Amino acid sequence: MTLSMTIARLPDAELEIMKVIWESKSEVTSAQISAGLQGKKDWATTTILNFLARLVERGFLTVRRLGKTNVYTPLIDEETYLESESKSFLKRLHGNSFKSLIASLYGGGEISKNDMAQLKAFIDENGGAEQ
């Protein structure tokens, strides 16, 4: 999937469902999703089914019938979603300024000097440093 197409932002509850699906790395049933949420969310089966129906409507999942069970498969992979959401976050909250993002995290104590050194090394290794 190319990122030129807009991917809708998922509400937190639907994102929790998608995380379970992405972790499974295969098609899943609502029972498997419920088991994957164990200890994280205490949602009723009907709540999970409502979230799954919304995710199908929004184009994040496909659903097919296998006997008496619905089986769900992701249409958008985790990496594509996270990349899109990260770009959207950077644009919405920091005007596409990576410097603004890092400054706010560093100023708020969320990034240590060690984190900054790792970030610098990452940029240097990936050709992001201007010569």
Explained architecture:
The chain contains 6 helices and 2 strands, in the order αααββααα. It has helices at residues 12-24, 30-36, 45-57, 78-94, 98-107, 113-125, and strands spanning 61-66, 69-74. Strands 1-2 form a two-stranded antiparallel sheet. Helix 2 (30-36) crosses helix 3 (45-57). It is elongated. The chain has 2 domains: 12-74, Winged helix-like DNA-binding domain superfamily/Winged helix DNA-binding domain (Arc Repressor Mutant, subunit A), CATH 1.10.10; 78-125, Penicillinase repressor fold. With 131 residues, the protein is mostly helical. The two termini are 33 Å apart.
Short description:
With 131 residues, the protein is mostly helical.
Main attributes?
mainly alpha, two-stranded antiparallel sheet, 2 domains, elongated, Penicillinase repressor fold, Arc Repressor Mutant, subunit A, 9% strand, 131 residues, 6 helices, 56% helix
Provide the domain count: 2
How would you describe the shape? elongated
- Give the name of the CATH superfamily of the largest domain: Winged helix-like DNA-binding domain superfamily/Winged helix DNA-binding domain
Q: How much strand content do the residues show? A: 5-15%
Low-confidence stretches: none
Oligomerization status of the protein chains: single chain
Number of strands: 2
Quote the average pLDDT: 87
